[in-house]
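Supplementary Methods, section 5.1.

A reviewer requested that the exact input to the structure prediction be made available. We therefore reproduce it here, unchanged from the version used in the analyses.
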Amino acid sequence: MKDGFIKVAAATPSIRVADCVYNTSKILELIKKAQSEDVKLLVLPELCVTGYTCGDLFFQQALIESSREAVGKIVESVPKDLIVIFGCPVEFRGKLFNCACVANDGRILGLVPKVNIPNYQEFYECRWFTPALSQPQKISFAGYDTVLFNKLIFACNQIPLFRLSVEICEDIWVPNPPSVSHVVNGATVIANLSASDEFAGKSAYRSSLICGQSARLICSYIYADAGEGESTSDLVFVGHNMICEDGEFLAQHRESEDSLLISEIDVKKIDHERKLRNTFGCADDPTYIYVPFDMDLEQTVLTRKFEKFPFVPEKDSQLYSRCNNIIRLQALALKRRFIHTGSKTAVIGLSGGLDSTLALLVTVKSFEMLSKNRKDIIAVTMPCFGTTSRTRSNAEKLAQAYGCTLRVIDIKDAVDQHFSDIGHDPEVHNVVYENSQARERTQILMDIANELNGLVIGTGDLSELALGWATFNGDHMSNYAVNAGVPKTLVRALVTVIADNSSGELAEVLHDIVDTPVSPELLPSDPNGRITQNTENIVGPYELHDFFLYHMLRWGHAPSKIFRMACYAFQDTYAPEIIEKWLRIFYRRFFTQQFKRSCMPDGPKVGSVALSPRGDLRMPSDACMAIWMDDLEEV
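The structure derived from this sequence is encoded token-by-token as follows.
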């Protein structure tokens, strides 16, 4: 439960209709399984003690009394560190209520009645059950004193963000589900006990409904459905269980009785997202009752999946369409800037690396949208001390393949003159040596743009901005930064997709660019003409930095939590000490390099994370990093 992770489960017991003794034995088996798996919240289906399809047997006192006895046996078996929610009928003042019994530590925390009782098509629940009453009722049930009310929020004393509420089946299908009220009054986790029958097409709709509700309400949603043990006189039930979190499926399965569907929800993630959304409501309904409970704090063993590349679509079927859409968004943004400024040409420093290649691809797309001649794309390659024949050749071939105007300007003499002017020894390969080249290139690009009524297209990406891996007033500067919202892992994916869907020499060049080590090429190459300055050997692997960046900015996770998640996601790739090393470098660079982001050029946001000082990240350039570095001492 450390870091906000809580292991939860949904399960469908194999029941017999109206056999409470048998059903209880199956429920108890699932409780034992949940204990053995360190589950903290187990959600079972609607009316699973009796079976949902008992029909008029619900009028039989024998069934109601047997059910009540069964509830007592189930509740007394529930330990302290587990909440079990299961469905049962509850008799109160001559009426039956379709309830969720919430049990913990051998007691009933509360009985939550169903609010919306369906009585249409195959459903006849109004024949047996009464909707939830408007006021809380004290009740003695199955030997326990508790409360009968639908507006209950069960709150963990040790984990304040773990706040649980319940709705039952039909409640989610109505225009204004109870869960809406639950979450705006503080619930972060919703459990739904359901008996949703199956027919063609319903499963997909149900999945969309549940996952969509978790997104709309920014909550974790655990859905437990009735299964094959229900009567098939008229209906079929398959036990479609789901665990969702803020619009994402963590786990789901069907037709799997007596087994646990397990995942770990993240209540800190939910809390962060709600705080970001100023339009997410915060109600103060005095009729809600907070029911406290206790659980021992312990570290949850993680089983849920964390994507190594959170910025890159995992499925190939999504990758092509997503990548093309991202390039289209970049191109649309650049198109608007051309229309507004009336610029004639685009000027790009083409290095033969990934970032400038993507910038060129975007510019070509934008020119297509504007019906402009590609000859007005001025691709300038500026070889200097560290430029290799491989990158120079690829830059030239790429410009020619797209029909751009290629200009080759060797800057060695200009940089040597600059060294002479400022009294720098060219044999000293320090930051002056490197940055002088970057600033000379930017000066050339800006002056060419002035001469040709053009825009200098920025090539730097989101990952470089996060790390400050750019020369201030060098490659840091442009007239419009088309890659400002694209992290390095996504840049690579975008160029790869274009390469895979190209042919001939263009495909060959693009694939070679993808395979070229990331480097600014500001230090001399080796005697064989190979790159000596590998960026990822200096600042760290971009796949790690993009993982850190995503979870820091998108979800506000603490460094120690990100470290734990990274160790889990990259367990087959990097040792924990390597991950810690680069994580420390990430935070140090992120904080110390904010001044570069504070004056960065305009550029489009194309994903959920952006660093613009005018948009997503309003951060002081002199913010102290002590809290974050101290947190890393816990790893």
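The mean pLDDT is 96. These observations are discussed further in the main text.
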